[in-house]
From TrEMBL:
The keyword Cytoplasm does not apply. It comes from Arachis hypogaea (Peanut). Residues 1-29 form the signal peptide. Keywords: Signal. This is Protein RSI-1. Belongs to the GASA family. The keyword Signal applies. Pfam families: GASA.
């Protein structure tokens, strides 16, 4: 009986670890995975939803997404999630991507 309980515990722990790893990979992939070009517009729409300058925000966000295939989560900040998006600068040295 004790051997069966021990085996059940080991199987339960192994399955729990497998699920944890699977879900952590899914969460990580959501933020940093390469987007398809068709995913850029909806992601940029959300990214630019809080600004009063929607047209230029959408233009540059889509341009950056087309190049980097990544859009940071949220409406502001979080650019560290997309290194290309974060490091692309204007001639003056300011951020190119919103």
């Amino acid at each position: 009986m004790a051997a069966r309980s021990s085996t059940s515990s080991i199987v339960f722990i192994a399955l729990s670890l497998l699920l944890l790893l699977t879900f952590s990979n899914v969460a990580e992939a959501y933020g940093s995975a390469r987007l398809r070009p068709s995913d850029c517009k909806p992601r940029c729409s959300y990214r630019c939803s809080a600004t009063s300058h929607k047209k230029p925000c959408m233009f540059f966000c889509q341009k950056c997404c087309a190049k980097c295939l990544c859009v940071p989560p949220g409406t502001y900040g979080n650019k560290q999630v997309c290194p290309c998006y974060n490091t692309w600068k204007t001639k003056e040295g300011g951020p190119k991507c919103p």
